[in-house]
Batch of 2 targets.
Target 1
Amino acid sequence: MQGDSKFWDRIAEKYAQRPVADEAAYQKKLVKTQEYLTDESDVLEFGCGTGTTALIHAPFARHILATDISATMLDIAKAKAAAQNVGNMAFEVSDIHTFEAAERQFDMVMMHSLLHLLRDRDAVVAAAFDLLRPGGLFVSSTACLSGKALMKPVIFMGRMIGRLPYVAFFSRDYLVDLLRSAGFEIEHEWLPEGGQSVFIVARKPSS
């Protein structure tokens, strides 16, 4: 975690200024997520980055806890929240392994642009499942790069010199099977035309 946090700390300012790659797809994902939110929803986001998505969803939820391994990313997120007078959010430097739930459970757990950056995806998805109340939702947008083999040498070299994070290459089918194996039921699945990031809403069974 320490090495990765240093990488994200280093690029935080540039990351905050980077435009959304596909604004139309991003907006569609936001709208779909908000269909599941109510003023009673307690939401947890892992890998919130500079907080853009969590801040957009904040008016639709009771409370959002936004976490990231990068303290610098969270400093930017906190400044955004203060500038927007958002009062129903909290921020915590943590990843899913170090996060202390303290018997808390959530109505929604979000992980966007994160699962393909993790080595232990099975454990992470299982932990997300446990953090949800029965009937709770896991919402994710994940790059599925199995068809991008030519990227592997570039990613490897970038990783070796500290310019890129770890990136896993897997398929959409693998991702869906991963979630189902953890016990989730897929409610919504969408891949934007020409895109690589699969948006999934998966539900923890009520019983």
Target 2
Amino acid sequence: MTSAAHAPILLNDNQLQSFLRSGYLTVDAGLPAAFHTRLHGQIQHLFATDGNPGNDILPLVPDLHQVLTQPRVHGALTSLLGPDYLLHPHRHCHLNPAGSDGQRLHQDSYEADQNVRHHRLRWLLAFYYPQDVDANRGPSAIVPATQYLTRSDRPAAADELPLQGRAGTVTIVHYDLWHRAMANVGTQDRFMVKFLFTRVCEPREPSWCHDGTPWPSTGRADDVLCASLWDWICGAAVDGGPVARVSGPDDGLVEDLVEGLGSSDESERHRAAYRLGGMDASGAEALLAALRLEGQQRLQPNIERAHTNPVQFDAAYGLTAAGVVAVPALTKLLADEIWWLRASAADVLGDIGLYTEEGVQALTTSLKDPSEWVRRNAVEALGNIGPPAGCARNALALCLADPDDAVRYNAALALAKITSGDRVALQAAQCDSNRYVRELATEALARG
């Protein structure tokens, strides 16, 4: 994506740290006003003649590529997702017509999938305005620092921030940030083009202008969570050690933190999980026990909730932070008789993203699990591990024929991340009934 004319302008430490806390960043595409006026006219014409083009907005308005390759936009995406990030085949132009009432605050569902809402930075949205947008024209609004909260702690609209700006404004947000379209009380329609991006390679080193700055401790409730994410995105987890380790445990600390996992406040549950994950093996053992209890309490509500992976558990975040300390027990859990424990183990191993021979072998075996949720999570896990999981390519290729859409979708994405796979199976997947499977198979073929 990089060219001499479009060398990325990377973020600095302060900008990256701000994103981890707030979940958003706004930049100017840096193109002349006439460019955006022309794109705005093309989009208006499309809607007037053929209606919303959906995923075809990019091929029908190809100059949108220029927005995505501009130095500040490309540089921000590179900084946050690494230089090899992938433009997802889902993109959409959102019309907010004059006189609309707006939307309710929401988190986007994952296209063709039901992913666990992970904290680590692997998915982003980008909102582009082709026209000037003020508070009256129905801007998109976000609630900063809510990307780590699920529906159990729905944020209030009173805390929202309208995304106003001139034509060419691009706001990049963590995929799970709460947002909505506000009421358009003006006389003109508002258009916003939304793009999805995903990380392809796990971070091995900083991909922004990093000067070695550690995470700045501020005493805020989210410090331990953000410090863990900071260490991970800096590449500190490459060797498998826990990130954002806390000092030696005081008497009773483990018990106190386990109690915190049951708090009614989601942020407090996260703090407890990450502190346990930053301890020695005793923290990981406590988290594994808490995972079993949490699953018994939350599994059915998760199943009943739309767009939710059944293993959306808080204890899993701490196990991810624990890193290699937790891997042997999680690998063993892949053979548990309880399906949701197997599914959770696969999910956490994928969020850790580390290669171990035993882990990859067990995850590969899990691709044949009778539970579609275990298969779905195991496929994603192998994709996150990336090229070191190359021995699973043939097994992943077989998953391209799985009866479950999410399994096939994640298999195509995993093969795009691992690179090089069964070309015959990928070519066959280009005829899949699911559009995203077809397009991600094409991406995997191009990257292989």
